[in-house]
Specification:
The complex is a heterodimer of chains A (about 375) and B (about 425).
Chain A: E1 9-16, E2 25-32, E3 37-41, H1 48-56, E4 63-68, E5 71-72, E6 83-86, H2 98-108, H3 113-126, H4 142-154, E7 160-164, H5 172-189, E8 192-197, H6 200-206, E9 209-214, E10 217-222, H7 224-229, H8 234-239, E11 244-254, E12 257-262, E13 267-272, E14 281-286, E15 301-312, E16 316-323, E17 326-334, E18 347-352, E19 357-361
Parallel strand pairs in A: 3-8, 3-9, 6-7, 7-8, 13-19
Antiparallel strand pairs in A: 1-2, 1-4, 4-5, 9-10, 11-12, 11-14, 12-13, 14-19, 15-16, 15-18, 16-17
Chain B: H1 2-7, H2 21-61, H3 67-71, H4 73-79, H5 92-108, H6 111-121, H7 125-135, H8 144-151, H9 158-166, H10 174-179, E1 182-185, E2 188-191, H11 199-230, H12 233-244, H13 251-262, H14 267-274, H15 290-314, H16 318-326, H17 331-359, H18 363-368, H19 376-385, H20 390-414
Antiparallel strand pairs in B: 1-2
Helix pairs in contact in B: 2-20, 4-5, 6-7, 11-12, 11-15, 11-17, 13-15, 15-17, 16-17, 19-20
The complex binds adenosine-5'-triphosphate (ATP) and magnesium ion (MG).
Magnesium ion binds near residues 48 and 88 of chain A.
């Protein structure tokens, strides 16, 4: 990994502790290619903001080295790093108007007045706030402030932009529009983006790669589809998308397939991901949309389950079942995609194939 | 409702019982206001009695001058017909009235008070009243003028009578004139002779020194407030205790401590001599002058600058500074363009507090100011407790009050009073 040349950003064995007792970031190794859109996803307090702060230079790494364009930057002060940043709380300067906020980085770079004005105008139009240049940040709604913050981070054409939940306060429609905008800017300008979000849909739709954080450790770093299809462990499976959990023990194992006996005796065929030996406790992960009501007998696994509740969600039905001792087993059924009408309280046969069913590490 | 607003017709909105909406709203609000008023009534009463009334009394005293008309009512009437420009003392009728008035005044023992009041304007006149008071009982009827002149020929002086006549109206501007080093002479208002001017100098000095104290409080307080707002909580709590410590020590003790430190044989001079920075003959004079006043008062008023600054700095999110730096601003640019503008409201609040407290201070200047470091308030205190010239004290106080209000207005014009924040 250390040999890779030309990474825009590289974290090498980085650790961070604020109090000398707890490690907030544990042994972080991460390469970000030039022009890449990398998203950090993870529960609250897992160290995402801390990573951005170290990269921007506001928090020193306790151990390890961070490289920017292959140059170590641990001793470079923040203002020389040239990194655009959108802060989690916007950090718009309250004593300046929106336009002055945007012009600030340009003034620092001693750009002439006309160019400044043109750039500020273009940046404001980009986030659809053309008419708001003279307002103070306090006179804007939360979402408008957020858009100003995005515009301000991009206005001085940095090569690397860090965004800490830049769209957290927006409604769904504006959010999707801004996602598109940001993605568009990313592609047009060729900037590298490190993006933090809590919204997994956002992470999946926007990113080249997603880093899933838990407790200061990257659990998985993969492109979105890999992340969803092949989670490396049960935390990732649980965190990304919806997921059914079934607990059991490995009773047979071969290359590419294993047999798991669930706690109630049901035997399932599954793809071993991080189980290695017979007798390992395991948690089976299964996406709700991979479960079939049609012709379950033809699939690798067939079990019986009782329908507890059916929720109508328009494009699909959400069926809550009791399967193999799990009373919260979810099945997503395409609307009118099945021949039999389903009824609450009745027992049905359901099935799924072995490769959709991953045997991961055991998690209560 | 919307229609009415849009079409612009003057439909009066009403509540269900047909009363106009505005009337009902005002009524509902009135009840609430009354309740709120009752809640604060004790405080209101307290402020009225202990703050508004004394100020009103002071304003009144600064122009009030009933004493001549009250003590010598008949004389005042008789004097109406006398023209000071004639160059002669008044005639027999005035002296007859004076005799009647003095008899009553002596019986009520008010004539000496009148004497000392007139003495402010006409030095020496009080002895006329004292002497005449002693002899008034032995006066015979008739030819009072000669009898008064026999007691003291000051009664024949046109100047003395002019003073009495001038002060006989119940409202006077003489206190205010005195407060600005002016007096009413033969031809109208004129400035006092050079060696008697004092108050304008004192007003100017009070304002200039208060400004100097405010500026030095800003210079010293700003870094301390910054530290307080940015150090880890435990250290900053300790520092905060040190800042508040002066509040827990008596003002007199603190001021006296400065005497020990600053006097010519004091600690600081001793140390400077000892390390050879100055020689024994050249010991610095740092007390009983302006320097002493500035140093001691800066020390005393510093917390009033630090606390508002601190509470404003506490609200400035560190992410502003970070954002500025991420955009390429150096430490200095970040401070000057981002941090400092956000602390201006705190500086404003602190400056108003310090300046207004400083302008009215008198214990500290009295103790460490010597003659060149005293404030106008020291003169006010002197007139209230020693010379008992309350009218003059009131006039000086009124001018001080007006000055402060004027400065406040200027401040509002320049900085804007909404720009003041205590946290
Ligand atoms: N300045 C600080 N001093 C001490 N501890 C801190 C500090 N900043 C963050 N932490 C701790 O470090 C951990 C990681 O915080 P961080 O802000 O990186 O989380 P995050 O992943 O960004 O969370 P969120 O999604 O809620 O923003 C948390 O447990 C937090 O309490
Ligand atoms: Mg965060």
């Amino acid at each position: 990994m250390a040999d890779i040349r030309g990474a825009a950003v590289r974290f090498e064995k980085v650790q961070k502790s604020y109090d000398g007792e707890n490690l907030v970031v544990k042994d972080l190794n991460l390469d970000i290619a030039p022009g890449e859109f990398l998203t950090m996803l993870g529960p609250s307090g897992s160290g995402k903001t801390t990573c951005l702060m170290m990269l921007a230079g506001f928090e020193p790494a306790t151990h390890g080295e961070i490289f920017l364009n292959d140059k170590p930057i641990n001793n470079v002060p923040p203002y020389k790093r040239g990194i655009g940043m959108v802060f989690q709380n916007y950090a718009l300067f309250p004593h300046m108007s929106v336009a002055e906020n945007l012009a600030f980085p340009l003034q620092i770079r001693k750009m002439n007045k006309t160019d400044q004005q043109a750039k500020v105008k273009r940046a404001l139009e980009m986030v659809e706030l053309g008419a708001f240049g003279n307002r103070r940040p306090a006179q804007l709604s939360g979402g408008q402030q957020q858009r100003v913050a995005v515009a301000r981070a991009l206005v001085f054409d940095p090569e690397l932009v860090l965004m800490d939940e830049p769209l957290g306060a927006l409604d769904k429609q504006l959010r999707e529009q801004m996602q598109y905008e940001i993605k568009h800017i990313h592609e047009n300008l060729g900037v590298s983006v490190v993006y933090v979000t809590h919204d997994q849909t956002e992470a999946l739709t926007m990113s080249d790669r997603v880093a899933v954080f838990e407790d200061g450790v990257i659990q998985q770093l993969s492109p979105p589809d890999v992340l969803y299809e092949s989670p490396k462990n049960s935390f990732v499976a649980q965190f990304i998308g919806e997921n059914n959990k079934l607990h059991g023990k490995v009773t047979k194992i071969a290359k590419g397939v294993c047999e798991v006996t669930l706690d109630d005796g049901t035997k399932l065929k599954a793809e071993p991901v991080n189980v290695s030996a017979v007798g390992d406790p395991t948690t089976i992960s299964l996406r709700p949309e991979r479960v079939e009501f049609d012709n379950p007998d033809k699939l690798d696994n067939t079990v019986k389950g009782k329908i507890l509740e059916i929720l109508y969600l328009g494009d699909h039905l959400r069926v809550v079942m009791s399967v193999a001792g799990n009373p919260e087993f979810i099945v997503k059924v395409r609307n009118r995609g099945i021949k039999r009408p389903l009824e609450e309280g009745k027992t049905y046969s359901i099935g799924w194939s072995a490769e959709d069913c991953k045997a991961l590490d055991f998690s209560g | 409702m919307a229609d009415a607003a849009v079409s612009g017709t003057k439909t009066v909105l009403t509540t269900h019982d047909g009363k106009p909406l505005k009337v009902s709203l005002a009524k509902a609000l009135r009840r609430e206001k009354l309740r709120a008023l009752m809640l604060i009534a004790p405080l209101l009463l307290f402020i009225l009695l202990s703050f508004i009334m004394p100020i009103a009394d002071m304003l009144f005293r600064s122009v009030e001058n009933g004493i001549v008309a009250e003590t010598l009512p008949k004389t005042v009437v008789a004097l109406k017909n006398w023209d000071p420009a004639s160059g002669e003392a008044p005639g027999e009728d005035v002296f007859a009235a004076l005799h009647d008035d003095m008899k009553v005044a002596v019986a009520e023992k008010t004539h000496t008070r009148l004497g000392s009041r007139l003495n402010y304007d006409q030095p020496g006149i009080s002895s006329l009243f004292r002497k005449s008071g002693r002899r008034i009982g032995r006066m015979k009827e008739g030819d009072y003028k000669q009898q008064f002149l026999d007691i003291d020929d000051g009664w024949g002086s046109v100047e003395n009578w002019t003073t009495i006549k001038r002060l006989s109206p119940t409202i006077t501007d003489s206190y205010f004139l005195a407060s600005v080093d002016a007096e009413r002479g033969a031809d109208g208002i004129e400035r006092k002779p050079e060696n008697e001017r004092i108050y304008i100098l004192l007003f100017v000095r009070t304002i200039l020194l208060s400004m100097a104290i405010t500026v030095s409080c800003i210079l010293l307080g700003y870094p301390i407030a910054y530290l307080l707002a940015n150090l880890p909580v435990r250290t900053s709590n300790l520092l905060m205790i040190l800042v508040l410590l002066p509040f827990w020590t008596s003002l007199l003790v603190r001021t006296s401590a400065w005497k020990v430190l600053l006097q010519q044989q004091g600690v600081i001079n001793d140390v400077l001599v000892w390390i050879g920075l100055i020689d024994d003959a050249g010991r610095l004079v740092m007390i009983n002058n302006m320097t002493g006043t500035i140093i001691a008062m800066t020390h005393i008023l510093l917390p009033f600058m630090i606390l508002p600054l601190f509470s404003v700095m506490k609200t400035i999110s560190p992410s502003y500074v970070r954002a500025a730096k991420s955009m390429g601003a150096t430490d200095w640019t970040t401070f000057w363009r981002i941090y400092f503008p956000n602390t201006v409201p705190g500086i404003g609040a602190g400056s108003i507090l310090v300046f207004i407290l400083a302008i009215g201070y008198y214990i500290t200047p009295e103790l460490v100011g010597g003659t060149s470091g005293v404030f106008i308030s020291n003169r006010i205190a002197y007139h209230i407790s020693s010379s008992l010239n309350w009218g003059l004290a009131a006039a000086l106080g009124t001018i001080l009050l007006v000055l402060v209000l004027a400065l406040y207005w200027v401040y509002d014009r320049i900085v804007g009073i909404d720009n003041v924040k205590l946290g």
